[in-house]
Amino acid sequence: QPDLGLHRPPEMSNERRIPPANCDEVLVAGTLTILDGFGRTITSRPLRRADLIHERDDLRQLRVFHLGDQFGKQHIVSSLRSAKFGSTPRFQDESSWCTQTFCSKYQARGTTYFQMVQAGPREKLHFDPHDPTACAAIVTCGGICPGLNSVIR
């Protein structure tokens, strides 16, 4: 079997810990707006990490492997850009992260939250969808996700 170079480079970890130090000072994307009972703005300021999670909580970003890192960058415009959907498609970009936790009860030592790259269409593609040599396969396990098998058919 040929080596396609899809292995993870040894210097890359699969997660990056975001340090909790100076939690109140770490700004995140967005604005915190506090309204009164009539919908009028009382105060508005940049959103801070402490507004979202407690300082004892742990926030980690799970890194993903990018094809462009191994094979060079390709900038093929997605065919969704010109598709007629009735509205403009919402593309995900490098800063599209979602945060989840895998916790079922309160933990006194804090909760670990994981940030993952959000799934969805990208504006720039690595492979040309019109190239017959660019193939993709979706492999599922029926017992794990039977609904997905129905969708693919």
Describe this structure in words.
The protein is mainly β. It has a domain at 59-153. It is built from 3 helices and 8 strands; from the N terminus they run βββαβαββββα. The protein has helices at residues 49-52, 67-71, 146-152; strands spanning 15-18, 27-35, 41-48, 58-62, 76-77, 97-101, 112-117, 124-125. It has a 4-stranded mixed beta sheet with strand order 1-4-7-6, with no helix packed on it. It has a two-stranded antiparallel sheet with strand order 2-3. A hairpin with a 5-residue loop joins strand 2 and strand 3 (41-48). The protein is extended. Mean pLDDT is 69; it is low at 1-13. GO terms for molecular function: 6-phosphofructokinase activity. It comes from Noctiluca scintillans (Sea sparkle).
Q: Mean of residue pLDDT? A: 69
Which range does the strand content fall in?
A: 25-35%
Note the gap between the termini.
29 Å
Poorly predicted sequence stretches spanning 5 or more consecutive residues: 1-13
Structural class comes to mainly beta
How would you summarize the topology of this molecule?
Blueprint: E1 15-18, E2 27-35, E3 41-48, H1 49-52, E4 58-62, H2 67-71, E5 76-77, E6 97-101, E7 112-117, E8 124-125, H3 146-152
Key attributes of the depicted protein:
disordered N terminus; mainly beta; 153 residues; 10% helix; 27% strand; PKF_sf; Phosphofructokinase domain-containing protein; PFKA; single chain; 4-stranded mixed sheet; two-stranded antiparallel ribbon
